[in-house]
Design brief:
The chain has 10 helices and 8 strands. By secondary structure, it is of the alpha/beta class. Strand 7 (229-235), helix 9 (241-254) and strand 8 (259-263) form a beta-alpha-beta unit.
Amino acid sequence: MKRNLSLIFVLLTLFAWTATFGQTTGKVFDNLSLHSKILHGERKFSVYLPPDYENSSRSYPVLYLLHGAGDDHTGWVQFGEVLHITDKAIKEGKATPMIIIMPDANSGQRGYFNSLAGDWNYEDFFFQELMPYVEKTYRTKAEKKYRAIAGLSMGGGGSFIYALHHPELFSSACPLSAYVGPLSLEEAKSRFVDAKSTASDGDILAYYKKHNVLSLLEEIPEDKKNAVRWYIDCGDDDFLYEGNSLVHIAMKKKEIPHEFRIRDGAHTWTYWRDSLPEVLSFITKEFHQY
């Protein structure tokens, strides 16, 4: 009888501790969806919710974390270990509790941009449907200061372009091993020729300028140079090193503040798993008040 009473006491103590302090780990939901009128169907996404989300009424900063080509919304969950890495960063005080949204850009057509033909407008979906849905569904702090974007490879390119197109929406942007777009107009034209596009040279030029990081950097006005905090990271053995290096040089010449990291590594998940804690720490500096 005494043993049973002791067991009951322990269970009640654990229950009270859990009710008081909440769960000790975050949660990931990786098969969520919303209906898109713009893309004419269901769009999947994953979400990371911080450890105290279910036991509090507070609102949280949000990070939009973009996957690369060949992956989908589960990439950062399965291969990037976003749950373990973010929980650890929060526990160690290196990152503030935040919501992380990981959308799918691999279904229907691959990529984060509107198509040249105008028949697949993913960027419109992201800003006009996904972000409003997230801010309505989850307790986010819907202000620029508390919103960040990051991504790897194709998602790194998406991070660049989204933050350059909408600097009023993101406090920080962290492109990792980013594809920055064709490095010349001739390269862009050849890509559309290979895709059997019937677009005119003028249309291709306009599209190129709107989706090329180097072109967009040239257009940043003097009073917008500090609009976004930049953290750019690429491995020394990454095949995309040239584009990332050119972006760094362009930013230096333009005097756009940014952090640029070259570490030992290639275009691999091993590299990006090591990058994620640095990203979380970097964006937390803006989320915090000092």
